[in-house]
Design brief:
The protein is an alpha/beta fold. It has a single domain, classed as Alpha/Beta hydrolase fold, catalytic domain (Rossmann fold). Helix content is 38%, strand content 18%. The chain is built from nine helices and eight strands. It has an eight-stranded mixed sheet with strand order 1-2-4-3-5-6-7-8, with helices on both faces. α2 packs across α3 and α4 crosses α5. The longest helix has 16 residues. The radius of gyration is 17 Å and the shape is globular.
Length: 255
């Protein structure tokens, strides 16, 4: 349970647990603070784990972009007086981590990316043509995972609410377009921080070839695969995800 560790201050809502080197977690568009429960509980034994809630539905529309969220992350660093941190990002969160690191390389010790956008991703579609059809939205949510049961009723209800809320759809689409606009292919060779790529072999949103491209373009990246796994390895196979991340942090001297 993360409730005791959730704070709201200075316009930020975030989880903070543990002491040590800051490890900042960045969630995806449909992700939330609960997606990383087990990761937070495990790594807070050795790190100060921080997870800000990205202001996907509360930021001014013009700032609802990868660039806008990278600025939000910079402001979070300033507010928490963080000099350097390790960044862990899933999906959109990975893209924000990449953009931020490219602009502020001196602030990032390492990156862990899982199902990250930044090169290519398949969204749920530009128009949500059947957004009032619950079964259609349920199928779309299930496609994010290899095991459809990971898409709980609570998660499907949340997605259904988002796609049937006009303002939330507009913001989600603005972010999707921003992700395409901020393609990082030309920037990746300049990002010289150690990177750990943890990818689901059955990821349909950011398919395996995306992970291979990240590995090829980033100067200092290690790529690890999780079998029978989709777009959110930390939710679908948390133990394996934690084990890979743990071993990598030890290997690279961060733990």
């Amino acid at each position: 349970m993360l409730e005791p560790y959730i704070k709201e201050e200075n316009g930020f809502k975030y989880v903070e647990k543990g002491e040590g080197t800051p490890l900042i977690i960045l969630h995806g568009i449909m992700g939330g603070l609960s997606n990383f429960d087990q990761v937070i509980n495990h790594f807070s034994k050795d790190f100060k784990v921080l997870m800000p809630e990205l202001p996907i539905y509360t930021f001014p529309l013009l700032k609802t972009s990868v660039k806008g969220f990278a600025k939000f992350l910079y402001d979070f660093f300033e507010f928490k007086k963080i000099d350097k941190a390790i960044l862990l990002g899933n999906s959109l969160g990975g893209h924000v981590a990449l953009y931020f690191t490219n602009k502020n390389p001196d602030k990032v010790l390492a990156m862990i990316l899982t199902g990250s956008s930044g090169l290519y991703e398949k969204s749920m579609g530009d128009t949500y043509p059947k957004r009032k059809n619950y079964d259609y939205i349920k199928r779309k949510a299930q496609e994010v995972f290899h095991n459809p049961k990971v898409a709980t009723k609570e998660l499907v209800d949340e997605v259904f609410e988002v796609v049937n809320n006009r303002m939330k759809v507009i913001r989600t689409l603005a972010l999707a377009k921003s992700a395409i606009r901020h393609n990082m292919a030309k920037d990746l060779p300049n990002i010289n921080v150690p990177a750990c790529l943890i990818w689901g072999r059955d990821d349909k949103v950011t398919p395996p070839e995306v992970a291979e491209d990240f590995k090829r373009l980033l100067p200092d990246a290690d790529l690890y695969w999780i079998d029978k796994c989709g777009h959110a390895p930390m939710m679908e196979h948390p133990k394996q995800f934690i084990e890979i991340m743990d071993q990598w942090l030890v290997k690279r001297g961060f733990k």
